[in-house]
Amino acid sequence: MTEAAAPRRGRPGYDQQTVLRRAIELFNRQGYDGTSMGDLAKELGLTKSAIYHHVPSKEHLLAAALDEALDGLSAAVDSAAAAEPGTSAYERLRTVVQESVGILVEHLPAVTLLLRVHGNSEVELAALKRRRRIDERLATLVQAAVDEGALRADIPPDLISRLLFGMVNSLVEWYRPGGPVDPDILATSIATLAFDGLALHEG
User: Do 94 and 177 share a structural domain?
Assistant: First the structure.
């Protein structure tokens, strides 16, 4: 049996995901612009030069973090678009809201970072562009639900979309994984609160 190679001395063994997780935590704590590669190296117990053996740049880490959040949100919208034929826009929209809560909970630090982006770099501008495309697709889905008579028409669809996903995004301010609120109950509660208030009821 071959023995595993001994780790290189002087450099703690971190995989890419561990470095990314710690970087996201640091960006959220200090702000991306207020965090240097030296800060991250110190956080990981590495020398400033050794950190570059793990990642090429701070921008690379930011891009990976924002892609993590955006890929999850895009997947939720893609899933709704690929729903079984005959699935109403209302049902698809409700599913997207619930799945978005699940994605936010699962990727809370990355989504938190995404929501704090202001477009101060090319990486941030690209992320904001992707986020706008997602927002546009969600607004289109809201409009489709209004058109089929499932949602009230006296509130502009783009405002409905902003309010719906503004409520989901607000979770980053107070939700904590492992806390007293179960993620599945949270997702169902938000969808119930939102759609019982928005859905048209006969009678």
Answer: yes
